[in-house]
């Protein structure tokens, strides 16, 4: 019988008073206790609970508030539960926000490739807009998943939000099969193709496999590091000490002579060469393997 009475009393308890502002106001309490209607509606009774949490004002606290504000307190006042509304997220809303963020920040259509939300952690936050910024996105190499740390914001109020998810879009990328040093000319045995998640935030294009061999690394790479186009350059066409054909123009005539390179150059780069006939040093441009040209000077300037 006592248990039944307890259940009946709990079921009869009024629901919490739902608040949407940072202060408990007289107008809020007046909806449950008529005496507080005598106060100015905006009069503050105390701080609201954190977003998404509740607080119970005991009858004794309510009487103390009333007396301090000049109201008549009634011993029969009950305890009062107050609840501050917080953000409520569902997977559809979070997924749509992720797609919009990838499209606007990285120009990547994640909706077409698909993603799976693995976890959503929401701290105390107002029922506002989800904000995701570029700097909040992190890729977890150990699990091939993403963490996007953002916030839910309403006016000047906000609360933390973390979303862990996996992108389904995958690609193949070349990786180093061993440690490689800067300046190394890649051979076929220096790299292999590896399946890997697409990384839209890096905006890196993996070079086609046929374009890797013979390219030169701009910097050293540890084993298993991705090899991207930003890390590659063309090998020199001309090496120091190499015998080259030097071509120049005189009117409609084309003149060829023998020379020796004093430096190295890739296609389109300039270098000094020494002419065999008179030992003169001239500056020329690498155009093909073993071949350089003296570029015609604009009219009115010296070569």
Description of the molecule:
- The chain has 303 residues and is of the alpha+beta class.
- The chain folds into 4 domains: 14-84, no CATH class; 91-167, no CATH class; 171-233, Type Iii Antifreeze Protein Isoform Hplc 12, CATH 3.90.1210; 243-293, SH3 type barrels, CATH 2.30.30.760.
- The protein contains 5 helices and 19 strands.
- The strands form 6 sheets. Strands 6, 7, 8, 9 and 10 form a 5-stranded antiparallel beta sheet that branches. A 5-stranded mixed β-barrel has the order 15-16-17-18-19. The chain has a 3-stranded mixed beta sheet with strand order 1-5-4.
- It starts with a helix and ends in a 10-residue tail after the last strand.
List the helices and strands and how they pair.
Layout lengths: L1 H11 L4 E3 L3 E3 H5 L13 E4 L6 E4 L1 H10 L11 E5 L6 H16 L3 H4 L1 E8 L6 E3 L5 E4 L4 E10 L2 E11 L2 E7 L14 E7 L18 E2 L14 E2 L9 E8 L2 E9 L8 E6 L5 E8 L2 E3 L10
Parallel strand pairs: 1-5, 15-19
Antiparallel strand pairs: 2-3, 4-5, 6-10, 7-9, 8-9, 9-10, 11-12, 13-14, 15-16, 16-17, 17-18, 18-19
Number of helices: 5
Shape: rod-shaped
Strand content: 35-45%
Report the major sheet.
5 strands, antiparallel
Mean pLDDT rating: 86
Q: What's the total number of strands?
A: 19
